[in-house]
UniProtKB/TrEMBL annotation:
Keywords: Dioxygenase, Oxidoreductase. It comes from Paragemmobacter kunshanensis. This is Phytanoyl-CoA dioxygenase family protein. GO terms for molecular function: 2-oxoglutarate-dependent dioxygenase activity. Pfam families: PhyH (PF05721).
Amino acid sequence: MIEDAQREFFAKEGYLLIKGFYDFDTDILPILRDIHRIIGLVAERHGISLSREEFSPERFDDGYPTLLATNRRIAGEVYDLVKQIPSFLRLISHPKAEALFRDIRGTDHAGIGAASYGIRIDNPNEEKFRSHWHQEFVFQPQSIDGIVFWTPLLPIKPDLGPVVILPRSNLDGLCTYVRGTTYAEKAGAYQIGIHDEDAVVARYEHVAPLTDPTDLLIMDFLTIHGSGYNTSGRSRWSVQGRFFNFRDPIGMKVGWRASITAGTEVEAIFPDNFVSAE
């Protein structure tokens, strides 16, 4: 599905941007329509009047800033509900995506981890829930040769905070992590960070690809990456899915565990890769 040069680039650099991987009308547009409808339904449920025009792909999220400004918990309902729409689930399990994963990893048995997919809504100037530097395998311990599939739902410009990737970091194995130091003020899994993060991050180049809906950005489960800072006036909407290889011996050893957000205790799985916060 990809050229040999792309395959080699992914293996070496730990990421690959594939332009126009999905079809806009068939794959992306239905998701945008459903998000627009859900925003309206949540507003109706809470008696909030929205001043917005009819649906358009460019402004599919009209009304969401009003919900966010009114009550963050109400906006949180949108965050939870958009992960339940069939159009989104079809994209996550798209036959092309599965075929690409199988092709790259040379496996006949791909999986999608429990609680490993969603639609992120990164609001402007909000740090608490921003995804900081991490490797996916620590948070998604299904197989060490897993791949993140990332697609934006609006054009990603520099001020929206593109994904920042550290090329070739995948070649250096799993980092050492710590909970409750640099990110102690964050919630849940967001408290886990790379030990001696500044020194680790400084060893690598930083790249932040600009992407459009239909583009697919894939990242190795060991590639260090994080969300950029959204300094725009609009939320950044993106789709994340994660495939893993059932035949990976490390995944088999740990039992293809679910996402940390599903309650998996990663410190118990990776005791040699965690240090005490003291």
